Amino acid sequence: MSRLFGSVRSRATLGATLVVAVALVAAGTAVLLSLRSNLIGEAGTRAERSARAVAAELAARVPYDRLSGLDGDNGPVQIVGRDGGLVAASEDLERISGTATGEVTPKPSAPAPGDDPDDADDGDDGDHSDDGTDGTDGDDAEGSDGSGGSDESLAPGEIARGTTFNNGSATIDGDAEDYRFAAVDVRTLDRGRLTVHAGAPLAAEHGAVATSLTAMLIGLPLLLGVVAGVTWLVTGRALRPVEGIRREMAAITASEDLARRVPEPATHDEVARLARTTNETLAALEASVERQRRFVADASHELRSPIASLRTQLEVAAAHPELLDLDGAVEDTVRLQRLAADLLLLARLDAGERPADARVDLAALAREEAAGRTGVTVDAEPAEVSGSRGQLGRVLANLLDNARRHARERVTVTVRREGAWAVLGVADDGEGVAEADRERIFERFVRLDAARSRDDGGAGLGLAIARDVAVRHGGTLTAGAAPGGGALFELRLPSAGRTRHG
Q: What per-residue confidence (pLDDT) applies to 167?
């Protein structure tokens, strides 16, 4: 299970499915609540219409046994008096809840004055408010237990504007249903203040909500299955190039063949950029390994010569002490020591060794390195840089050694400032460097003069070391032509002020 959900494809599918599921559940809940609210509202409107129709008949002094709303065809109806007692109800009403009273059988009561239609207009038109026996006193009517909750002061024959709604149930002729009840107050001329409770069935609301819920419960898993399937297919198609890259990288790792490349899709998306970057990394790694292989081979070749020479001299000296060439042995030993030091420095530079952050005056360094060298002149102005004094001194020494080997008579060292840069130049009056070779000479173990002896030309590491040190110090080292002929090597380094604030 952990392996299954450990893939990007599985997590993407699960995430998309969960998001869609949450959205669908939220939307479905909102739809069901809205549907239920609308249907309950419609049922309440029907119930209110029925209650007001009965209230209008009561206001018109229609007797209870002649009220059209009590036939039970439009739902249960109760008429509650001001004392909370049931005075009339629908035919065949067997049980009811959710109204002011659960009674279904009207209480027998003496007719109120004016209850007989023939006497309705006798006396003072049924207005007996003076003796309080007609039930039309405002305070008594509003405080009755059977009121619909209206606080309105109603005039005789007036129906309250407000309506109270409740949910309940009723059983009519053996059929039990849920209803939405509406309660409306009316003040009659002959029977005082009454409350009409009329109900409208909620079967349509229950049916619609149940049908919608069933459809959602069936459709939701199907839709989630479609979303999961589509996401799985789309994600798999999108990640197919990534799997190809992974397989090719695994094959490269197993075969150690850095010449191989991963497939690059023809798209312009992140996967294509990943493939191109991977191939660029492989190319750089291949070049680095090849360079390291050549370096090891060349270093082995360079070390073999002085070691073999030194061994030969020692073996001859052991057999014939009188033939010992002490000066030659010392010279080979010094050469071997220098070569080993160059190789160690290159190894440290390749490992990314950071130079020290010390202040170095190139003018003072130039005068120091030029001292004791014949034919070398210095024209320098103060120019401070940040870095390793030892490594920068090694650069200048290598440049001076190289210039001295190719100069006819003189070598000139200059130091100047150019804006935020300090420039150190070493020029000679020799034959110079051909333009085609001005980059190649900075490669390791490269010597342009193939006929030149190793003793005169060195191992071909001096300029390579000088450029690597320059790059590590944030600068450049280039080869060009001197104004008076010969070669010109320029070392450009950021000044100490620029390095400090850069």
A: 93
Confidence at residue 310, expressed as pLDDT on a 0 to 100 scale: 79
Nearest Cα neighbor of 165 from 267, 64, 49 is 49
Contacts of 239 (CB under 8 A, 6+ apart): 8, 9, 271
Angle between helix 8-59 and 203-255 (nearest 10) = 170
Residues 6+ apart with CB under 8 A from 282: 252, 258, 260, 261, 262
**CB-based contact 486:428 (threshold 8 Å):** yes
Contact by Cβ (8 Å): 160, 185:
yes
Beta bridge partners of 170: 96, 177
- Tens digits of per-residue pLDDT, 103-155? 888 876 544 444 444 343 433 343 333 333 333 333 333 333 344 555 568 88
Considering only CA atoms, which of 262, 264, 256 is closest in space to residue 290? 256
Question: Which residue shows structure tokens 């129709």?
Answer: 53
Strand partners, 95: 171
Assign 442 to helix, strand or coil.
Answer: helix
pLDDT below 70 — which residues of the chain? 1-6, 108-152, 447-459, 497-502
Report pTM.
Answer: 0.50
* Per-position DSSP letters for 108-124, written without gaps between them: P-PPPTT-SGGGTTSTT
Confidence at residue 484, expressed as pLDDT on a 0 to 100 scale: 78
Delineate the domains of the chain, giving CATH numbers in brackets: 27-207 (3.30.450), 270-348 (1.10.287.130), 355-501 (3.30.565.10)
Distance of CA 256 to the CA centre of its chain: 36
CB atoms within 10 A of CB 93: 20
What's at 180, amino acid-wise?
R
The DSSP bridge pattern shows strands 376-380 and 411-418 to be parallel
Do 431 and 456 meet the contact criterion of CB atoms below 8 Å apart?
no
Partners of 37 in the β-ladder: none
Long-range contacts of 468-476 (CB under 8 A, 24+ apart): 468/346, 468/349, 468/350, 469/349, 469/355, 469/391, 469/392, 469/394, 469/395, 470/395, 472/349, 472/353, 472/354, 472/355, 472/391, 473/355, 473/385, 473/386, 473/387, 473/388, 473/391, 473/392, 474/499, 475/421
The residue assigned the tokens 């005056």 is 361
pLDDT digits (tens, 9 = 90+) for 322-368: 777 777 777 778 778 877 887 787 777 777 777 778 899 999 999 99
Q: How many CA atoms lie within 13 A of 254 on its CB side?
A: 6
Decide the pairing of beta strands 164-172 and 93-97: antiparallel
Tell me if 383 sits within 8 A of 422, measured CB to CB: yes
